[in-house]
Write a structure and sequence with these properties.
Helix content: 40-55%
Number of domains: 2
CATH architecture of the largest domain: 2-Layer Sandwich
Number of strands: 7
Largest sheet: 5 strands, mixed
Strand content: 25-35%
Structural class: alpha+beta
Radius of gyration: 22 Å
CATH superfamily of the largest domain: Lipoprotein like domain
CATH topology of the largest domain: Double Stranded RNA Binding Domain
Shape: elongated
Distance between the termini: 63 Å
């Protein structure tokens, strides 16, 4: 019994030592406090809450915009807007499987998304933009004579795509805001 406890404590010590070693090589938690060049500290959650999401059209755009709002704007309600995030989405589909009579049995969605983050000033200043489009893929089956099931599967696939894109855009925007806050002020 004591041997198991001892091995657990050694594994915890190894984990702690590994984490301390990571901090020496420049690793910082993404959502940890931001220490600016002048020594002041900022909270990344407050920066994300200051981001407003621009309009994204159609039903898929509504899903994406709502997911981004949940991740950013609603983290600290009442935070004044300082940034505007615009996301462009390109959704394509292709048929993967057919029955003998030619009706499709499986559909794949391919989603490409770009974003840019600007300040809400006159004139707006670009903070960051995606370098390459983020691509995510999902698919769903079309069961034989199950129309409601096919619609539900399609909607679920689209929701998964938008949630995946939202998560990636939020991560990239958080990294851009962290870099922007940590860089020295241009003078």
């Amino acid at each position: 019994m004591s041997r198991d406890v001892s091995s657990i404590s050694w594994s915890r010590r190894g984990l702690l030592g590994g984490l301390l070693g990571l901090s020496a090589c420049g690793f910082r938690p993404l959502y940890g406090p931001i220490t600016a060049e002048d020594g002041s500290e900022a909270d990344l959650e407050a920066e994300l809450a200051a981001v407003r999401i621009g309009p994204v059209y159609e039903r898929t755009g509504q899903l994406l915009r709502r997911s981004l709002q949940r991740r950013m704007e609603e983290s600290l309600p009442g935070t004044p807007a300082r940034y505007l995030l615009n996301v462009n989405v390109d959704l394509g589909s292709e048929i993967l499987g057919y029955r003998r009579d030619g009706t499709p049995t499986r559909v794949r969605f391919i989603l490409n998304g770009n974003w840019n983050l600007d300040t809400i000033t006159i004139p707006p200043q670009r903070i960051a933009a995606s370098g390459i489009p983020y691509r995510t893929i999902d698919s769903f089956n079309i069961p034989d004579l199950q129309f409601f099931s096919a619609d539900t599967s399609r909607d679920a696939a689209l929701a998964r795509l938008m949630e995946d894109l939202s998560q990636e855009v939020t991560r990239q925007v958080a990294m851009a805001l962290r870099r922007q806050k940590e860089q020295p002020a241009a003078g």
